[in-house]
Here is the input.
Amino acid sequence: LYLTVAKAPSPDINNMKKLADIYVDKHPQGVLFLYAVDGERSSFILKTNRQNKIDCSTILKATMPIVGGKGGGKPD
Here is the structure.
């Protein structure tokens, strides 16, 4: 497994989800941390293939309070 960190070209969460899905399709062994900043607001997605043994939701729930945010979503 390997981690890729990337800034999204737009803070639109639907576009960010599409980008994350494309990444996982092309890199099934990868983990993507995708972020966007829009003024005072930041958005984050942590995404991987379901077959990988990483629970992205648990990781975000544990780390997002550091930046005043909340994590959640599906394990992948």
User: Anything to note?
Assistant: The helical segments are 13-26, 56-63. The chain has a mean pLDDT of 93. The radius of gyration is 12 Å.
